[in-house]
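HUMAN: Now follow token order:
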Amino acid sequence: MNIIQALAFLLAGGSTLLGFELHEHMHSPRWNVKTLADAFEAPATATRSTIEEQVAMPTPHVGESVGRLPTERQVFVISANLIAVKKEFDGDYHLVLEDPTTHLHMIAEIPEANGKTPRAYLDQFASARKTIDRIAGAPGILGKKFPRPVPIEITGLGFFDEEHLLTPNGMPSNCREIHPVLQVRVL
């Protein structure tokens, strides 16, 4: 086997593994929590919070089979600086947020609507994504870092993600995110 064949073999194997992992991830209870496809209705009232408060929460044990946790039943409004954005392989917009005071980071994600997305949230997801598109242009998988932070306010549900093999840019140690983001407002 020459070097080209070996690289092609590795690439094909990696793509297959990524495809399998993404398929399993997108059909798990955690995926349904992230996208509100678990039939949970987000409360109409939101609680003001900060990135500092979110990243200080104790880290629960989560895995693909864990449904919605009690701390994932609350809508939060957070003012932050948007410092980077990209489109994930699953179609979600991945926002890296920075606390304007403490400079702590966390992630917020806006899902790409799919067949399992509840109709009640389609417009909210689309509107939040359009706001990001106006700020950054349609983000690609390579992402965009902003030379100057963009002050925004996000509204969305708290979510604890699983630990990742490679820690995504902006992920706090407790894996706390705002996912899904229901609204983005430029300040």
